[in-house]
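Q: What residues go here?
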């Protein structure tokens, strides 16, 4: 009886409050980040040629408009990416389209940033940084984790279809999903309340 208890305790998994880093995910994070940066570059090139400066500036500098109007609306705009990743994770080849989503996100960010800088507004660099870069501090890590979860789930479907062994990792996906949700909430709070306050202080 005592020997059985010793064996069961020996085989019992050790409790670790902080999981070890998933080094196998680093190349995927690098790939998604590269897709985002490439999108920023193409978006910046588009922003140089764009003639939408006045419209974009009016949107970004409107204190009672998109920024600060509705916390749930801002959070919902971020949730669109989560729904898109969820749909891609239910397909066999969805993991191939995740970098394209990051490229599109980078394209929009780069285009808005360059168009804003070309508007000729005073403090354009500061206002563009506040409006676009400050929420991105929280949004990008959340999207990277959501994209990684999508790649894992989609690739697992493909492996099951081919009869290959599958590593679940459901607990790790749950932790990353919870962290992504918290980061998106923080980004929505920043864009709804912090950004309008800082723009009001920085605007001449």
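A:
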């Amino acid at each position: 009886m005592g020997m059985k208890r010793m064996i069961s305790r020996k085989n019992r998994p050790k409790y670790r409050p902080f999981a070890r880093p998933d080094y196998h995910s680093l190349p995927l994070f690098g790939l998604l980040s590269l897709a985002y940066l490439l999108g920023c570059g193409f978006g910046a090139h588009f922003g140089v040629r764009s003639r939408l400066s006045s419209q974009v500036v009016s949107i970004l500098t409107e204190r009672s408009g998109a920024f600060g109007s509705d916390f749930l609306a801002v959070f919902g705009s971020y949730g669109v990416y989560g729904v898109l990743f969820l749909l891609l994770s239910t397909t066999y080849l969805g993991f191939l389209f995740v970098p394209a989503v990051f490229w599109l996100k980078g394209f929009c960010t780069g285009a808005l940033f360059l168009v804003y800088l070309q508007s000729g507004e005073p403090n354009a660099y500061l206002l563009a940084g506040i409006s676009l870069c400050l929420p991105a501090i929280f949004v990008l890590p959340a999207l990277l984790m959501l994209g990684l979860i999508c790649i894992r789930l989609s690739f697992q479907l493909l492996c099951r279809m081919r009869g290959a062994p599958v590593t679940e990792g459901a607990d790790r996906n749950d932790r990353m999903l919870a962290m992504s949700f918290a980061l998106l909430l923080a980004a929505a709070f920043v864009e709804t309340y912090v950004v309008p306050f800082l723009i009001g202080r920085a605007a001449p």
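A: Context that may help when evaluating the design: Helices lie at 2-11, 26-49, 53-61, 71-89, 98-117, 124-162, 170-202. The chain has one domain: 28-44+51-202.
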